[in-house]
Amino acid sequence: MPQIQILNPDVLGKPLGQYSQVARVKASEFLFIAGQVGADRDGKTADGFDAQCAQTFANIGAALASQGAGFANVVEFTTYLVHSQDIPRFMAYRAREFPKLFAGGAYPPNTLLMIDRLVREEFLIEVSAIAAL
What pLDDT, on the 0 to 100 scale, is given for residue 2? Predict the structure, then answer.
């Protein structure tokens, strides 16, 4: 079992959303999950940002489960958004859904980046993850 400490050192200030500043990890293995987008396993793209956000995290959950892991194993996310106006929607999704995924509010660090576009024009969000096993 990995030892994962999710930390918010006072010297860094309070996070601006549902994430933490630091993850300290002792693990025997790491799982690197490629960026997931708002398309299901058949390639159908979810309609709208909120639906794509939900599908993206469902895909991450499925990738984790395929390796015998869950969201408690995640130690870092990197998030890519195409439109800056989706930042409030992304924050609202995390505020609503992350308490269900992460016990006790121990949210992994997340880097949020704005980019010009993703691999397909209709994709609005992509999230990659690192998990400790």
Answer: 92
User: What are phi and psi for residue 50, nearest 5 degrees?
Assistant: -60, -40
Q: What is the pLDDT of residues 64-75, one digit of tens each?
A: 999 999 999 999
Number of domains in the chain: 1
Domain enclosing residue 25, as ranges: 3-132
- Where residue 106 sits, what CATH number does that domain have? 3.30.1330.40
DSSP string, 39-51: B-TT-PBPSSHHH
* Residues 121/38, Cβ–Cβ less than 8 Å: no
Interstrand relation of 74-81 and 110-114 (parallel, antiparallel or unpaired): parallel
In terms of pTM, does the model score above 0.70? yes
Q: With the CA atoms of 90, 101, 14 and 21 taken in that order, what torsion angle do they form, in degrees rounded to the nearest 10?
A: -100
Structure tokens given for 32? 């690197």
